[in-house]
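Task 17 of the worksheet. Students: predict the tertiary structure of the chain below and write it out as structure tokens. Keep your answer in the requested format; marks are given for formatting as well as content.
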Amino acid sequence: MTFRLLGYFCAVALFAVMHAIPASADAASPLGKWRTFDPDTGAPKTVVEITETGGTLTGTVVELLDDDETTCSKCDGARKNQPLVGMVILWDLTPKGSGWAGGTILRPANGRTANASIELADGESIMRRPYPLADSSRIDEDAEADIEWLKAFIMGVRQIRGEMNLPPGKSLPVYIQAASKQDMERTRRMQPLLTFLARIEAPWFLEVDEAAPKAAVALLGEMKILVPMKDLIDKDAELARLGKLVAKLESDLAKGEAQLSNPNFTKAPEAVVNGARQRVARQREDLAALREQLATISAL
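Model answer:
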């Protein structure tokens, strides 16, 4: 027979399973001696004797089943560094429904207390099992590679949406260029996932000698994911938006470069100077990307 002891530490449930020691516990009562098991490893930890006084239950450690700790080094107050054998770790439990509740449990491993209750675990409760261990023989490397490919495809399309300021819910036409046989097989097999998750139309594979339209590009290995820009955006509005961003970034970059060229500024703390240099380097990269994007839109 098994009883399940539940304690809640900072809203995280701690489950300790208690198995009856033969001839030491009644069939339908928690009174008697019980083995407790580590909730993470399933290893036996202690023997706890539960007694009843005045309608409340108390649990006392009467035996240690491993040598990890013999005293409560993490406890506070009177329990600090006291032997675990003989220590009360469960108290004030009262009957409630088919179990017992309203009590307090002490976890010697960290010295913390929490609310506690006891339930009868009928049959082959999962609480009787140790924490599951990974089985490397069941790892499907092909499935994992497929998922990584799918994630990269979706992230490529989302990156294009962000760079081109395209609405997230708009279905985009997509062309595929330089796809391998495996890329083509994956695209066709996972097309329902791609169209739903990436919000794209059915991908169109370009022939080797077929010219690609003006498009934003994302790379997935050797394969290119192309999203043609024509008719997807308001060209004049997008050129105006990008022009404002370029002008602002050019102004910020000019200020940063002027600051770095000032001899007095170079006397500032090294961390401050390095921070300014890194900021200017990022601004140059961002400006180059914006100018490239501006040129792409202008060519539509």
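Marker's comment: Helices lie at 141-164, 181-189, 191-197, 235-261, 270-298. The longest helix spans residues 270-298.
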